[in-house]
């Protein structure tokens, strides 16, 4: 990195750096100054001092303009990424794709000699150039791989074989490959490997969980895909270039069919991301099942705002280790009943396709086991969520004066300029709304949410609803009497999104949260014409980070903050757009939200898929 890039990186991560008595001074949040970053600072120390003395600001094409008042570190802590003893791995959110790019390393798997698809070959060359131009480190294949040896031992068959291969190092973020049609020999080898794996799984390990690496060792010799060459599939994504599936991107194809097409494409190529290519257009597909289509001349924007964010933040559920597990009685919660009602009333909109069981979509046990390990034991995937946030919980004064704020104490992990606490441990936030500073108590947030994989429009009060809490740490309350070891009951992928929305609404748009906050998410968009007075949308130009990621929670938090600063606090409904993914809609009242969404669907102004996204983007561009 050069001097400007180093300073931009530090500024993005809320690190204060200045010159005092000819010495460089740094004040940084805990954990930000990694050894690599310290080495960069040391190597450019004299240039940094000269740069700062000249009064230059660390703003370049490598940073986004800051249109928010809080540091990203603080926002991250506010929405649940805390670093207490149970969660030591909290990280700084990065929301600028140019900064994401600088942290990525990818490699391209060599194309077969007889590969003839010229459209994909041309796109592949352009993709490599664009990634490199944005600062992604593109390693040649030979430098990205290392020698690896393992043994396969099947005792009952008295079969033992030592296999020597070369694999992509675990530090590589993505391997980019082309779709390779299977030969008769490769099909035979796959079937043989699958049969051997099933014997091993059933009789040797007797149904116990097997690591991803071990599964890959057992079946890898028979594969002809990039996944075969990956040392650690949990760290390295596979991106496959293939022919554009016109049926999948057709706006007239029912979304339920798109789910089947999309999942089978990802499974067939055994990849996390598939880019479909034609001579004039291309698409991107991941587990969000986006049907976004781009003109071939949009590759610059696509690489920066769509592909790089997806490589930087892969889709993974929030691990249960992040939560303190408790129980609650959903029958005693009026908000759980509200959530049940919300789902039921939205059934006729058809915005919530039923979830798909991985066991029904992934036929090969070895592939299914790998996916289950990667997604932390989940067996189902669903496309949308329904949730209901309780009114924010406060103890003591909700808002205090600036003088009272000055008398408060610092809070570990927070900047003293942004968060302080009183004598009973209640935390207060200094935030700017419009031109005025406010000193507000950070509330405890509680959200009732449908479990992952459930039928959102036909929830069971006894077994489908979980309660998620955000106090000084994350809490997960499961329905009393339900054994999580027996029943597959895990939180939604979108926990950070729900928490980001609820916390931001509580701080900046309290009228939305006064009686609780209904929230829905579906994989589609409304038209511009659907919105009425005091209804707004935001987020159209955000980088398209995948669902449920830490970064997506930050973007949703900022969307509400920006709407309030632009339109004031009198918001009745907000649509928080997630490009290449879908829409979150919140409203001050359940019946109002249901009526508005039903009307939008009946009039064709809300639909699944990306059909209406272009109109939202065009409106933003014109305004």
Q: Any overview of this molecule?
A:
- The protein contains 21 helices and 29 strands.
- It has 623 residues and is an alpha+beta fold.
- It folds into 4 domains: 3-100, no CATH class; 105-312, no CATH class; 320-391 and 451-463 and 481-622, L-fuculose-1-phosphate Aldolase (3-Layer(aba) Sandwich), CATH 3.40.225; 399-440, no CATH class.
- A 9-stranded mixed β-sheet has the order 12-23-22-21-15-24-28-27-26, with helices on both faces. Strands 4-3-7-8-9-10-11 form a 7-stranded mixed β-sheet, with helices on both faces. A 5-stranded antiparallel β-sheet has the order 16-20-19-18-17.
- Say how many strands there are: 29
Tally of domains: 4
Amino-to-carboxy terminus distance: 36 Å
Rg: 25 Å
- Name the structural class: alpha+beta
β-strand amount: 15-25%
What's the topology here?
Layout: H1 3-12, E1 16-20, E2 23-27, H2 35-43, H3 45-53, H4 72-78, H5 97-101, E3 105-108, H6 118-133, E4 137-139, H7 141-144, E5 145-154, E6 159-168, E7 174-178, H8 184-204, H9 212-219, E8 237-243, H10 246-249, H11 255-269, E9 273-277, E10 281-285, E11 293-295, H12 299-312, E12 323-328, H13 334-345, E13 356-357, H14 358-361, H15 365-374, E14 380-381, E15 385-389, E16 399-400, H16 402-406, E17 409-410, E18 419-421, E19 427-433, E20 436-441, E21 445-450, E22 465-470, E23 474-479, H17 495-508, H18 510-513, E24 517-522, E25 524-526, E26 535-538, H19 550-567, E27 573-578, E28 582-587, H20 590-602, E29 606-608, H21 613-622
Parallel strand pairs: 3-4, 3-7, 7-8, 8-9, 12-23, 26-27
Antiparallel strand pairs: 1-2, 5-6, 9-10, 10-11, 13-14, 15-21, 15-24, 16-20, 17-18, 18-19, 19-20, 21-22, 22-23, 24-28, 25-29, 27-28
